[in-house]
Amino acid sequence: ELEPYLLGKDPTRVVHHWQAMYRHAFYRGGPILTSALSGVEQALWDLAGKSLGVPVYRLLGGPTRDRIRLYRSAGTLEDVEQQIAAGFTAFKTGVSGQRPARIVETRAFVDRTVKHFATLRDAVGPERDLAIDFHGAVSPQTSRLLIKELEPFQPMFVEEPAQCQNVDVLADIARGTHLPIATGERVFTKWGFREILEKRAAAILQPDLCHAGGIFEVRLIAGMAESYYAGIAPHNPLGPISLAACIQLDATIPNFLIQEHTTLGEGYLKQPFVVDQGYVQLPTAPG
Questions:
Q1: How far is 220 from 23, CA to CA, in rounded Å?
Q2: What is the mean pLDDT of residues 168-188?
Q3: What global pTM score does this model have?
Q4: Confidence of residue 28 (pLDDT cuts 50, 70, 90)
Q5: 38-66 pLDDT, tens per residue?
Q6: CA distance linking residue 213 with residue 29, whole number of Å
Q7: Is 135 a catalytic residue?
Q8: Can 16 be counted among the known catalytic residues?
Q9: Catalytic: which of 16, 135, 211, 261?
Q10: What is the structure's pLDDT at 27?
Q11: What is the mean pLDDT of the chain?
Q12: pLDDT at residue number 170
């Protein structure tokens, strides 16, 4: 659907093409259009960078840092130990109640989840970070119970303690705790993130560069977030191409917190990313 518009155009007019494809579409926004736009937009930035012989972050104002901190998901103690040995310093786990959470949970369910988190917290120690993801699958009633009990263990952030569709509920949870609340993997474009920021529903935003609109759109979201003192921790459960795009963006924003990833590109990229003490160095190749 986008091909007829793009053929024959100057690929370096990235922002112009994004606006044209977004505004001229019959439907505005949503996961399908913005995911397609994100892929095209990342490819246009790659072409623009290669045509000028510079990394994309050089076209976005240059780097604000020389390395990018990564975190990995860790469901078990063995996962954490392996990833510490691999050099990681930050991790994210989930709710471990052994079954789906009910609207209002039992003391036993809460205790099991907190015990699991406490075990991992002991393993990572006070100098490393450990976050927890509720996946939007826990009711607000139970999320409040869990957050209260998790506070002494200081999670790096609590991700999606409620579904993102009702921002007021998320804002209410955020006001009830000093722990940073994170959300954004199912929110699209700057317009989608505006309400979250205005209502202070999250202190950490997690836009996905492959769904939220691409590199420059998330750069704009990060700028909006900066004015609300919110950090950016891009969502990325995808592959190494997504990670490569994220790193270009992460390099340029002052309020970058940490980058999610699942693979460094081993067996796929000619030059996989390399983690050193929890960080990867900025790439220097064009695009």
A1: 17
A2: 97
A3: 0.96
A4: confident
A5: 999 999 999 999 999 999 999 999 999 99
A6: 9
A7: yes
A8: no
A9: 135
A10: 78
A11: 96
A12: 97
Among candidate residues 254, 247, 220, the one with its CA nearest the CA of residue 18? 220
Query: What residue type is 245 in one-letter code?
Result: A
In angstroms, rounded to a whole number, what is the distance separating the alpha carbons of residues 95 and 226? Answer: 29
For 283, residues 6+ apart whose C-beta sits below 8 A from its C-beta are 55, 244, 247, 273
CA angle 28, 29, 31 (to 5 degrees): 140
Cα gap 164→169, rounded to integer Å: 9
Alpha-carbon gap, residue 35 to 2, rounded angstroms? 12
Tokens of 51: 């045509």
Query: What is the SS3 assignment for 91?
Result: strand
Q: Tokens 């518009």, residue?
A: 5
* Catalytically annotated residue among 17, 116, 211, 235: 235
Instruction: Kindly report the backbone phi and psi dihedral angles of residue 107, in degrees, each rounded to the nearest multiple of 5, phi listed first.
Output: -60, -35
Residue 183: burial class (beta carbons within 10 Å; 0-12, 13-18, 19+): buried
96 confidence band (pLDDT: 50, 70, 90): confident
Name the residue with tokens 């609590």. 158
Q: Residue 67 burial (CB < 10 Å; 0-12/13-18/19+)?
A: middle
**What's the Cα-to-Cα distance from 73 to each of 80, 214, 268, rounded to whole Å?**
9, 23, 21
DSSP H or E run through 151: none
Tokens linked to 111? 């205790």
- Coil, helix or strand for 69? strand
Distance CA 167, CA 201 (A): 6
How many residues would you count in the chain?
Answer: 287
The CB density around residue 278, as the number of other CB atoms within 10 Å, is: 21
Contact criterion met (CB below 8 Å) for 179 and 185:
no
Which of these, 182, 68, 84, lies nearest to 124 by C-alpha position?
84
pLDDT digits (tens, 9 = 90+) for 228-243: 999 999 999 999 999 9
Q: What's the mean pLDDT in 85-111? A: 93
